[in-house]
Amino acid sequence: MTMLQLQDVHAYYGHIHALKGISLDVQQGEIVTMIGANGAGKSTTLRTISGLLHPRQGTITLNGQAINGMPAHKVTALGVVQSPEGRRVFPRMTVLENLEMGAFVHGKPDPADLDRVFTLFPRLKERLSQKAGTLSGGEQQMLAMGRALMAKPKLLLLDEPSMGLSPILVETIFGIIKEINAQGTTVLLVEQNALMALSIAHRGYVLQTGQIVLADEAQALMRNEMVRKAYLGEE
User: Contact, 74 vs 51, CB < 8 A?
Assistant: First the structure.
C-alpha cells in the first residue's frame, strides 16, 4: 500500500530551483533511502514533505490525502515526523523535557511511548535529568530520534542520522532504525553513508542537482557500477 507519493514536485529557495520534478513513493512498512552528494536536494525533499517548505508545483499525498501546502504542525499531526539534520535538540532543556516536546502535538506524553523510547535508547533513561546540551553527539542523535518517536510517527523522516558519529555508534544507530521499522514505523532516510543506508533499506533513490537519476531495490543499487564508484568509494 502506497503511504507517501510525490509527483513532479518542484521547490525553490528564493530564485534557486532546488527540486526539479521529484517523483517518488514510499510503501507502508518500508525503509526507503535517498542518497546523493551535498546539495543534491535530499534534505530539501524531506523539508518539502514535512511542510517546512511549500512546493510551487506538483503534488504530495499521504495515504491518498494531499498534504502539499499544509502547515508543518498539521503534517506532523497526520503522522509524518522529521528528525532533522544536526539533531536540533533543545540544549538547555533536560532529556525528559526534550522528549515531552516531541509529544506536544498530542497534548501530553504517553507513558507507553516513553517506555518504547527507553527500550530503544536505554542511555536516555540514564540521562533523563541531564541537560541535552551536555550530551555526546551520539546521545544527542538518540535524543533527536527519541523525540521524533514521541510524536507517534506513521512515517519517520530521518535526515543524516549518522553525521559526525563514530563507526561503532553508526552501527548502533542503524540497528535501531531497523528495529523502529520492524516495530511498524515506515522510514524515509536521507544519509551520506550510502553503504549503511542501502544495507538496511528496501529501496533507494539517487538524487543529483534536484532530480532523481536512479531508483531501484537497495541491493540492486549496491551492485550498480555508477553508485559503487560515486557513493560507495569503489574504483
Answer: yes
pLDDT digits (tens, 9 = 90+) for 136-155: 888 888 899 899 999 999 99
Indicate yes or no: pTM above 0.85: yes
Phi, psi (rounded to 5 degrees) for 104: -55, -35
In contact, 109 and 150? CB cutoff 8 Å: yes
d(CA 158, CA 144): 10
Per-residue pLDDT tens for 10-30?
999 999 999 999 999 999 999
Query: Cα–Cα distance between 153 and 156 in angstroms, integer?
Result: 6
Query: CB-based contacts of 78: which residues, under 8 Å, 6+ apart?
Result: 62, 65, 67, 154
| Nearest alpha carbon to residue 16 among 211, 210, 213 | 210
Identify the residue whose cell numbers are 514505523: 185
